[in-house]
Amino acid sequence: MLSTPRLTPESYKRLVETARNDPEAFWLRESRRLEWSTLPTTAVDAENGWFADGSLNVSVNCLDRHLATRGDQAAIIWQGEEDSNVLRLTYRDLHARVCALANILRDSGVKRGDRVAIHLPAVVEGIIAMQACARIGAMHMVLFGGFSAEAIADRLADSGAAVVITANVGRRGAKRIPFKTTMDAAIALRGEASTVRRVLVVEVTDDTVPLTEGRDALLTPLLEAAPTTCEPEAMNATDPLFLLYTSGSTGKPKGIVHGTGGYLTWASYTHELIFDHQQGDVFWCTADIGWITGHTYVAYGPLANGATLMLFEGMPSHPMPGRWWDVIQKHGVTTFYTSPTAIRALMSEGNEIPAAYDLSSLRVLGSVGEPINHEAWTWFHDVIGGGRCALVDTWWQTETGGAMISLVPYAVEPRPASATLPLPGVNPVLLDEKGTPLDGAVEGILCIDGSWPGRALTIWNDDALFQTTYLKPYPGHYFTGDGARRDVDGYYWITGRVDDVINVSGHRIGSAEIEDAISEIHDISESSAVGIPHDIKGQGLVVYIVPHEGLSEEQMAGLKDQVIKIIACKVGRYAVPEAVYVVPDLPKTRSGKNVRRLMRKIACGETEGFGDLSTLANPGIVGELIRIVGKA
Ligand code: ATP
Ligand code: MG
């Protein structure tokens, strides 16, 4: 049965107007969705930040305040890789476990403002650890499970973390991922200079791992002995909650710091709005907690709103294709939030696979991380959502804390492949290169005017970099680094990163526009468009395409022509590429984004000097692309 949506087109419009007319009152009212130990009396001032005179504790907001009303409701449904391996934690269970771990952290000497590194596979302890840090006012720094020892060592050193929470090993299909061994190697890389003095180990499997005397401890016995209540630390609204590194799509990852009161207000507000969150929903965001999406829409937004969240240990297509659909069917998932990369991969498995599952529990679908092309949008909407679910494309960044431009289900008219409208209270502007705001239907540099509660506080240890990256490029505006087009109805279409804009004979082309056109060719699973210098046109366009597996030679031979034809037809003759490279894969960040800066360099004939590659999921592809481009 369809529940009544939270917002109607009329109430949504009223919300937009209230936010526009009196933002101070609007945000102060929204802050009341949280429980404060001292209520804030101001929303924002440039000097002091958001809700500056308020104080609160994030874990009290995510756990304690739900105990009276939903203590026995599942907070987390965890599905292990093995089908029989399921764990249901009620809000009461979660509260007890968080308190126990918070006590252990305090006993380990962790104080307010200290950094704790969390390096875990998709087990409930990840969320528990984040909440435990929040309870005692420590900042967490979550490391993606797949990071190499070098990537971990850099982040440990930059953050100065003294305590680490990791696992003995993680499971990935038949494979065992050596979490503890990788952590040991990371700490050893810095030798005496390492700041880490305590390593707490979650035993995910029965495997035994070496423990360093005096530094390492298994968590289970400590948890069994720890008290299950823990006095929360009252934090100022503008105290930092966590430190998290960006995906590194455009270069060296930035250590983004988020605050307490503003961030949690934003997480709660956006989670409720964009997913039309309702009592009884089973909310599944597939992101790893090592990324911002996993912070805001796994760990904080859903718990702040008293939701039931789904956490899955396994992979989309293991041990058989359709495993994700199986999880949705088994647990009655109502809200399903994932990335375009995942959607495209699942789409390439064909429609018969999802057709074998009952997906009727689904109500709202979501996408984040990259522009979603028309093909993927339509497939997700029609095949997975059965044409009946709202599909929200949510544009945002690590730095924005939560969604900024997104459909609000049932309140905003959807449009395939558009992130649609800014959320009430968010004021995007499009600028030309000189920084002049542009009106009406136009394409430009996407900036945000004014502030919003979820905006990052700073870059860790480098506020000057925060200023020069986001605030100085276009004074008076927050610079997102992305480009967008606005249509006559005010809908936004993200065109890609500003650095990736290709200027062919004076025509500005966003990478997303070209890739969207190519996505209509069924034999191609993915593509990336980049610009290279061109004597006459200024820039020329180069395209990398990844064909579907199992194509015949004849089909392969026809691909380049199809690409040229579809670009000429959908975008224009001026955009016809100088070269089309057929490649087995595209370089991707570990969060699944295509790294165009590398493809651009390789297309220019460069073979070295690629900068920080630690965030690449598939570094081996770089050499292969160099070879393919060199041979062509
Ligand atoms: P880095 O900042 O280190 O280069 P990153 O920008 O990939 O890495 P994230 O903060 O994880 O790190 O990603 C935010 C970026 O992802 C946005 O700036 C935008 O380019 C892209 N993005 C996210 N969601 C969407 C979306 N729905 N549509 C289009 N692009 C999106
Ligand atoms: Mg970025």
UniProtKB/TrEMBL annotation:
Q: Which residue ranges does the record assign to the AMP-dependent synthetase/ligase domain?
A: 64-452
One GO biological process this protein is involved in is: acetyl-CoA biosynthetic process from acetate
- Domain Acetyl-coenzyme A synthetase N-terminal, by residue range, is 12-62
User: Do you know which SUPFAM superfamilies this protein is assigned to?
Assistant: Acetyl-CoA synthetase-like (SSF56801)
**Domain (AMP-binding enzyme C-terminal) ranges:** 513-593
EC class of this enzyme? ligase
The record's listing under InterPro entries reads:
Ac_CoA_lig, ACAS_N, AMP-bd_C, AMP-bd_C_sf, AMP-binding_CS, AMP-dep_synth/lig_dom, ANL_N_sf
Classification via NCBIfam families: Ac_CoA_lig_AcsA (TIGR02188), PRK00174.1 (NF001208)
PANTHER family tied to this protein? ACETYL-COENZYME A SYNTHETASE, ACETYL-COENZYME A SYNTHETASE 1
The UniProt family comment states: Belongs to the ATP-dependent AMP-binding enzyme family.
Q: What is this protein called?
A: Acetate--CoA ligase
Source organism per entry reads Acetobacter aceti NBRC 14818
**Lineage, broadest ranks:** Bacteria, Pseudomonadati, Pseudomonadota, Alphaproteobacteria, Acetobacterales
